[in-house]
Amino acid sequence: MTTWNIITTGYKPIDVTKSKEKLILKTVYNHIKISGVRKFKVGDIVRISKNKHVFAKGYTPNWTTELFKITAVKITNPITCLLEDMRGQPIQGAFYAEELQKTTNPDVYLVEKVLKGKGQKIYVKWLGLDQIHNS
Length: 135
Fold this sequence. Notes:
Layout: H1 21-28, E1 45-48, E2 68-74, E3 80-85, E4 90-96, E5 100-102, E6 111-118, E7 121-126
Antiparallel strand pairs: 1-2, 1-5, 2-3, 3-4, 6-7
């Protein structure tokens, strides 16, 4: 057991020591490459892909109406992004680039529902935004 070389590391088991640890790790994992080019950078505004089941209606949007900002791009395999909503609240989890769509801040917001109305003034709920944004 102490005389033959391990093919992966090139060392005999008895020769593997703490001092050679980094060298062996580098040799074993040197073939792993980070896939793809970074599509997004910190500060980009994105939408998240919606999960649809098999019988979901095809005419409904595939992307969220709410916008998110990228706070970090993690160099993993594949590359992932950390997000926060437009109020600065972090979103739990990391997202793959395929789940995100780069967008710009819209100048027009859609009204989901009129909550109150009095004369010329109305109080509305905006489509895709939670009730904190009602105005």
